[in-house]
Amino acid sequence: MIGTGVINKERVIAEVEAQSPVGQVLIESEQYAIERLIEEIKNGRLKKFINNSHDSESQSH
Asked: What is the pLDDT of residues 9-44, one digit of tens each?
């Protein structure tokens, strides 16, 4: 979602592959989100969620 619009998966792929301005914005926003998640992990703020996910996987195996 950008602004008030929604872009479907096929359009996202086409924009990224074409390296259009919209595709660049999509790439940058994903990179930003990944960087924030890495910071949260490093700061230990996501341990609760990671441990819960890992615990449920262990129980299902």
From this structure: 999 999 999 999 999 999 999 999 999 988 888 888
For 48, the token pair is: 């609760």
pTM recorded for the entire structure? 0.61
Q: How far apart are CA 32 and CA 26, in angstroms?
A: 10
Residues in contact with 27: Cβ distance below 8 Å, sequence separation at least 6, in sequence order = 16
Residues 41, 47: Cα–Cα separation, whole Å: 7
- Tokens matching residue 44: 């230990």
Beta bridge partners of 2: 5
CA pair distance 44, 50, nearest whole angstrom: 10
